[in-house]
Amino acid sequence: MSAEVKNYADFGRLIRTERMKRGWTQIQLYMRVNELSKKEQAFCLDSIKCWEVGKSIPKIEAVLALSKVFKMPELIGIRVNIIELERKRNNDICAEI
After folding, report:
1. Mean pLDDT of 38-65
2. 7 near 54, Cβ under 8 Å?
3. Cα–Cα distance between 40 and 5 in angstroms, integer?
4. Per-residue pLDDT at 2 exceeds 50
5. What count of other Cβ atoms lies within 10 Å of the Cβ of residue 69?
6. How far is the CA of 19 from the CAs of 37, 82, 86, 93, in angstroms?
7. Which pLDDT score is estimated for 38?
């Protein structure tokens, strides 16, 4: 699965797919993740919208909670891989300039 998820948009599609498989609205996902988060509020509701369209990627605290809610511990590794790929892309772009 992680080989298929290479950027923010892919990660967002994965979150959306998992949410929809369970028949949850974004609000229901928000409530479930925040219940499991160690912080009082791991993120705001608009964050889910941004993640699902690929505008941003969840912070690690939210990914930990998402991995529990979805029973997908691999989400943590996927997020790490995406961050590494983004850094590599940015370094490659800077090297070209």
Report:
1. 87
2. yes
3. 29
4. no
5. 22
6. 17, 20, 25, 34
7. 65
Q: Residue 2: which H helix or E strand, with range?
A: none
Tokens 């993120």 -> residue:
43
What are residue 3's phi and psi, to 5 degrees?
A: -65, -25
Kindly state the tokens that stand for 49. Answer: 């919208």
Residue 27 identity: I
Q: Which helix (H) or strand (E) holds 43?
A: none
CB atoms within 10 A of CB 8: 18
Residue 85: HSE in the Cβ half-sphere, 13 Å Cα cutoff: 16
The pair of structure tokens assigned to 39 is 């912080």
* Residue 8 contacts residue 85 (beta carbons within 8 Å): no
